[in-house]
Amino acid sequence: MKPVKGMALALVALAAMLIPGCAARHSQNEVYYLVASNMSTNYWQTAVAGFKKAGAQYQVTVRVAGPDTYDPQGELAELQKAVAAKPAGILISVSDAAVLRPEIDAAVNAGIPVITVDSDAAASKRLYFIGTNNLEAGRLGGRRVAERLNNKGNVVFFTIAGQPNQEERLKGFKDVFAGEPAIKIVEVIDIKSDPHIAFDRTQQLVAQTGAKKIDAFVCLDSATGKMVADAVKRTGDASRVLVAWDVNPDTLQGIKDGVIDATVVQKPFTMGYVGLKALDEIFHYPPAQLTRDFSSDTFAPYPAFIDTGTSLVDKSNVDGYLADATAHAQ
Question: What confidence tens digit (pLDDT) does each residue in 237-246 have?
Answer without folding.
Answer: 889 999 999 9
